[in-house]
Every structure is written in structure tokens, then in C-alpha cells.
User: Which sequence fits this backbone?
């Protein structure tokens, strides 16, 4: 009897893991749409860069949810790769943004791009 | 035991998703790119921590734990660095702050107005 109840609770909880994965995919999709809105509307170039950074991070979260759903560790490699590409894109965007005013002197090193 | 593991997975996944949702709300609602960076970097880093920890607990193999640790360490190093670089270059390109922001200490330091700086 107790084993039966524990088994029922266990299957209920493991079913709720897949429910949370589904809800999480919906939440991240809504977040991506909001980031696209910010990327289109953002008044300054830095706003668009922030939105792109957060968008890459939401993609990382989506890949992690895929790994949870499949119970395979292979997808975590893809998550790491997306995180690295997002970081590189942020740094490249920041270099471009800082190089927009090459007439101003940069502090200390003075070596502008 | 499988039930306990699923409960721990649920706690980590829900907390990670909550942090990511808070970060997204901050990026949409805050008035300034600097404040949006503030919301983005902190909330997204903690959200990624929760999601990856939940994935590592749920999958449970040593391989997945190792990959999750590597990704968490990379995220905790790379996200603050990226946000800092972005904020500094936005400040160098002369982006205005929100009108109600109280101070701009980096500009004061660069102007040499602070004697102890």
C-alpha cells in the first residue's frame, strides 16, 4: 500500500517535471519575443546590444531545457557553445560601440580601436 | 529516491526560470540601458545557474554534472565581464543616462574632479 502511494507520488512528480519543462519553454519563448521587441524599439544601440545578449542567454536556457527533456548530457555541449558565441558577440558589439567615438581619448591606455 | 531527485530538479528549474523571467521583465521595463544591463547580467546569470543545476540533478550522470559545472563557471566569468565591457563602451560612446539618475561617478573621475580618485 505504502509502496503503491509512493509510486503514485513519484510518477506524479516526474510528470510534473515534464510539465515544468513545457511551461519553461513557453516562458522562454515569451521572453524571446520581448527581447525582440526591445531590440526593435531600443532607443540606443546599447539597448539593442543588451537585448541580443539576453536573447543568447534565453537560447542557452532553451537548450538546457531540451537536455532536461531528453535526459541526455549531449545537449549541454550545445548550451556551452551558445553561451560562448553569445559572449563573443557581446564583446564584439561593445568594441564596435566603443569605436564609434574614436575622436574621444580612452582612459589610461589611450589605444582606441 | 527518484521522487526526491525530481523534487530537487523542480525547485532548481522553477527558480532558474523565475530569475530569467525577472531579468526579461527588467530589460523590457527599466528606463535606461545601464539599468537594463543591471537587470540582464545578474538575473540571467542566476537563472542559468538554476537551470543548469536542475539539468545536472535530473540527468545525474557524472558527464552531465561536469558539463554543467564547466558551463556555470564560464557563465559566472563571462556574463559580468560582457556586461562591464558593454557598459564601459556605451559610456565611452557618450550615451546619456536616464534623467533621474543621481550621479555619474565615472565621468567625474575622468574629469578629475574627485581629489582622492
Assistant:
Amino acid at each position: 500500500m505504502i509502496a503503491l502511494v509512493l509510486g503514485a507520488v513519484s510518477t506524479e512528480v516526474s510528470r510534473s517535471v515534464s510539465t515544468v519543462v513545457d511551461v519553461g519553454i513557453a516562458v522562454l519563448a515569451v521572453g524571446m519575443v520581448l527581447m525582440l521587441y526591445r531590440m526593435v524599439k531600443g532607443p540606443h544601440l546599447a539597448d539593442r546590444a543588451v537585448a541580443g545578449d539576453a536573447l543568447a542567454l534565453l537560447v542557452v536556457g532553451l537548450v538546457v531545457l531540451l537536455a532536461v527533456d531528453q535526459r541526455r548530457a549531449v545537449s549541454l555541449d550545445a548550451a556551452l557553445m551558445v553561451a560562448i558565441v553569445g559572449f563573443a558577440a557581446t564583446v564584439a558589439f561593445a568594441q564596435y560601440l566603443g569605436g564609434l567615438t574614436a575622436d574621444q581619448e580612452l582612459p589610461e591606455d589611450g589605444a582606441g580601436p | 529516491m527518484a521522487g526526491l531527485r525530481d523534487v530537487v530538479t523542480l525547485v532548481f528549474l522553477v527558480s532558474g526560470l523565475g530569475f530569467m523571467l525577472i531579468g526579461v521583465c527588467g530589460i523590457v521595463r527599466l528606463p535606461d540601458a545601464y539599468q537594463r544591463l543591471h537587470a540582464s547580467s545578474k538575473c540571467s546569470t542566476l537563472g542559468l545557474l538554476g537551470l543548469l543545476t536542475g539539468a545536472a540533478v535530473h540527468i545525474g550522470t557524472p558527464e552531465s554534472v561536469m558539463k554543467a559545472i564547466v558551463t556555470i563557471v564560464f557563465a559566472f566569468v563571462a556574463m559580468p565581464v560582457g556586461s562591464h565591457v558593454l557598459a564601459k563602451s556605451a559610456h565611452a560612446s557618450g550615451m546619456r543616462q536616464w534623467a533621474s539618475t543621481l550621479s555619474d561617478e565615472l565621468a567625474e573621475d575622468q574629469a578629475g574632479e574627485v581629489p582622492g580618485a
Summary: Confidence is low (pLDDT under 50) at residues 102-113 of chain A. Residues 43-99 of chain A form one domain. The two ends of chain A are 72 Å apart (CA to CA). Residues 13 and 111 of chain A are 57 Å apart (CA to CA).
